[in-house]
Design goal:
54% helix, alpha+beta, 3-stranded antiparallel beta sheet, 114 residues
Length: 114
């Protein structure tokens, strides 16, 4: 683990453009979420999309996974009761088009009432 941590620090130091690209992707995602009428998300790489009911989170997460998005459902006791959510994690493995497609899919799943 120490070697992995050391390598990570080396990459961050030697390739600062990775941090800039990820920060840009996070900013774009947050802007897209707000532009779509959703509440302002956390200022993080991990975006919680609160759906409330456990059953909704447990239906939506697999539906979005089936569409190719690695989105996980979280429910109590991991999160407080009544705040079941989808966990969206941004990485450099995706680009702006994939983020927009994911948000479109999320909106469709939400609109369908599932």
């Amino acid at each position: 683990m120490a070697v992995a941590a050391w390598e990570t620090l080396s990459i961050l130091q030697e390739e600062p453009e990775r941090q800039r690209r990820l920060a840009k992707l996070v900013a774009l995602t947050h802007w897209e979420i707000v532009a779509r009428g959703e509440r302002r998300p956390s200022n993080s790489l991990i975006l919680p999309y609160i759906v409330g009911e456990n059953a909704r989170a447990l239906r939506r997460a697999p539906a979005l996974q089936a569409r190719g998005f690695d989105i996980r459902g979280l429910r109590p006791p991991t999160v407080p009761a009544g705040t079941a959510r989808l966990r969206i994690s941004l990485t450099l493995n995706v680009g702006e088009e994939e983020v927009r497609a994911m948000l479109d899919a999320l909106a469709e799943e939400t609109r369908d009432g599932s």
